């Protein structure tokens, strides 16, 4: 809130974790301006439904609960009133709450102050970026301001992260309650908990309930009361690197070097090495200063802020709760994204930058007894359709989506012929056996319906829906928004009357698979096991695609792209097999429970006896004890 009245600030960006200061900032900014500096204001939500919900659940209660706003903002309910759910007027101005998806909503009126909420969820309009369009409306006003708020998403694709980097990159520091050292809290640097180790030093147990902030200087742990008291000492610092006096300078690096210096040469005030305190009646911030001339090279026209749940005062966000989430989510790539975004308030850096070599993946191939190794609970199939063949991968799934490539089959022939699809069906009906004799069948399959054989795939899948054989296609992602691997939106009644393929989030699936390919530590959740029968060309197909950047209507995002002339069927089959697993989970399958049901010693059932074999005690046998006539007893 102090940045709103800080001289020189025109744009404010707030990139923080969930449930921390974003909505409160927008609400309080509206109330402040409506009361003390009224003007035309526009609030953007991702969609019109979200705009209406925000008005009902946040703005209207705020007005009712604040006496000064209750007296200012109209509350008439008549049909002819200027007041609507999404339009609030007051002397000297108004607040219009709109969805960002329509350029007419964004560009039709002059505005002095714009509040853009959840900007990473905005879909580009036909006229371009909604934030840019809205801020263009401020051109005629002196002292216009824009506030952008959102939790981040993916690095390189997150609009709020790009906005944060454009600004002066403010971070908060707090004082240690034991030694007074000022530090910038970070989960991985400051939060520690007790662990148990084996004789070789490997961690075998975590005690997350002991998690606490530990001072990076004195090493003392903070109890929860001390952590909350430390939050009262929070100060914001401009941390954006700059060039001044022909020297590149990084305030954070300068501070780190200063406080870590030996005691005899350590500055009395390490903070003063990198920053200078600037305070007024309604603002306060540490301004980055040049170490040579002492000037402030980083302007404050765009004040950008970031913070995670390390700075939250709520009990639900205390270090033990963060530690528990980390331990639960760290082995799942999708959950890792969520942890970075919702807990740390940081954009997630996708896997894919790491160089993968087919030879290294091939070197970790395995053999296992039986057709199915221990640990598998479910088998799914992914099928890639070409004009002259269908390629299938059979994948076994274990706890935490640990996977085994059980079998890879190429069925050659004309894919427009029924005979070929009969052979595909025979493969899907095959039975796999574990070394102890337990049998496994295919639980679900996804067959690609793209290319030239769409109708053939539709007919094949539609006749086998009861066996969970699904025709699939890649979901459209022209707007740059990653679609879920399995769709979450229920089809309408009209859509249920006709057969349609399942639209899967191919890019999201490839994100996950790539991250798991890079998981080279010990087997466990997410780890990918490969059968030693795979040749090197198969591994090359698995890693052939690269992530490439795209820009649509000003929005940056990345997609996976296969270089021209290269084959990628192995990757596609794995994507479709993973989609089949997600389909099962969507319809109620509990993977870990399914795995647990197949573990343990398997005792085969006794062989069935032929009907014509009579055994002792059978009711229709010639019982020689008390049997028919002539019995000797």
TrEMBL record:
Gene Ontology molecular-function annotations: ATP hydrolysis activity; endonuclease activity
Domain of life: Bacteria
Sequence ranges assigned to domain Phage terminase large subunit GpA ATPase in this UniProt record: 3-236
Ranges where the record places region Disordered: 599-633
Residues covered by the Terminase large subunit GpA endonuclease domain: 303-582
Protein name: Terminase
Source organism of the structure: Sphingomonas sanguinis
Organismal lineage: Bacteria, Pseudomonadati, Pseudomonadota, Alphaproteobacteria, Sphingomonadales
